[in-house]
Amino acid sequence: MKVSKYLSKHLRHQPERIGLTLDANGWVEVDALLRATADHRFPITRAELDHVVAVNDKRRFTIEGTRIRANQGHTVEVDLDLPPAEPPAYLYHGTVAHSLDAIRAEGLRPMNRHHVHLSPDRETATRVGARRGRPIVLPVDAAAMHRDGHVFRVSANGVWLADAVPPRYLRFSA
């Protein structure tokens, strides 16, 4: 858990803090990452890194060849280069009650991230919402959004990404 959080912090939000530079698509060389973690008093072995990537329940990271990146959730400027994808009829967003007034008024916004994160099923959205309190799951009429020209992308770990979700596509009574 500590390794996953450390990697998230530095591969999604603050790579410069440990001397890393992500490429335009968010990738960094694994060797550079391992050197940087060791240089900053958080040594990770390649075996530990591979284990975290393989068993992380949220599948936050991808290793491709000699490179690694976070699958989504960046606050630093990256282009994940994910192709547009046709979503299922409904996607889901987990939230908590104190956010509902803003969501009703403005819809779902990416806040400090690049995209709104949507789950493919209610169970995943429930877990996401539960991180902040008692979860409320909002169905998103993704088929209607897609028909109306909104673009969806899906990350390597199955998280659906949209620029925003206007309120008219949300179902508050479900």
TrEMBL record:
Keyword Lipid metabolism found: no
InterPro entries per record: Ptrans_KptA/Tpt1 (IPR002745), RNA_2'-PTrans_C (IPR042081), RNA_2'-PTrans_KptA (IPR022928), RNA_2'-PTrans_N (IPR042080)
Keywords from the UniProt entry: NAD, Transferase
EC number, as in UniProt: 2.7.1.-
Signal peptide: none
Biological function: Removes the 2'-phosphate from RNA via an intermediate in which the phosphate is ADP-ribosylated by NAD followed by a presumed transesterification to release the RNA and generate ADP-ribose 1''-2''-cyclic phosphate (APPR>P). May function as an ADP-ribosylase.
UniProt record similarity statement: Belongs to the KptA/TPT1 family.
HAMAP family the UniProt entry points to: KptA (MF_00299)
PANTHER family: PUTATIVE PHOSPHOTRANSFERASE, TRNA 2'-PHOSPHOTRANSFERASE 1
Protein name per its UniProtKB record: Probable RNA 2'-phosphotransferase
Recorded name of the encoding gene: kptA
